[in-house]
Amino acid sequence: MLPFERHTRILELMDAHESLLTQELAQKVGVSEATIRRDLQQLSERGQLARTHGGAVRLERSAHQEPAFATKSVRMQAEKSAIAEAMARQVRDGSTVIFDAGTTILEVARRLAGRPLTAIALDLPAAQALAVGATEVLLLGGRVRSDSFSITGPWTEDQLRDLRADLFLMGAHAVDERGISNAVIEEATVKRLAIQVSQQTVLLADHTKFGWRAMAQVCTLQSVDQIVTDRGSRRLAWLKDAGPALTLT
């Protein structure tokens, strides 16, 4: 079987099963596990699936939908952990930090919990994780979106306009040369406001978010001060010239 035939078969299997172990894929495709690992690496680099420990999961690429929180939480765990570790080291005690919705930002929140910070949370999981010890947590009011637990709507936007923060830790659904975009219009609006009220904005995203575009435009790449991502993004040469400082974990 030629490589493109294997890749097509793998993607068909991922569409049918959503997630599979390397061993299962090797058996279904009829090749060695080593071959499957190479194929998964190539497909992951193209953004066609996401690798996990011991296998892979399907990526939704709809401009109108996003994966549920439970689905996102198991994807790219090693990459998210490395990104979160790198970001947590940069945050200064005493800062006022806005925490965006999303599983990568949640990993940062878990590492900063208990430190002397003022944390403004834009989703429920981050607020819960941060509410430890010396960390003061402000949870904005608004509509809680089912399956993602982000907080959006006019109440959220009105409260954000009256705040000032040192740092906004932002997630994204998709990033390309035209900028940062999101699958949900209401979340995109909240992100733009958080950028406006923060002295500095850092985008945190693993490499599967790069190279494609979602429905709702958030901002240009020049609107953020720094991008923290994993080394799977190193092949995207345009990132180096995009404007923001680039940190590869």
Automatic annotation (TrEMBL):
Example of a GO MF term: DNA-binding transcription factor activity
Keywords annotated in UniProt: DNA-binding, Transcription, Transcription regulation
Pfam families, sorted: DeoRC, HTH_DeoR
Protein name per Swiss-Prot or TrEMBL: DeoR-family transcriptional regulator
InterPro entries attached to this UniProt entry: Carb_Metab_HTH_regulators, DeoR-like_C, DeoR_HTH, NagB/RpiA_transferase-like, Tscrpt_reg_HTH_DeoR_CS, WH-like_DNA-bd_sf, WH_DNA-bd_sf
Highest taxon of the lineage: Bacteria
Domain HTH deoR-type as annotated: residue spans: 3-58
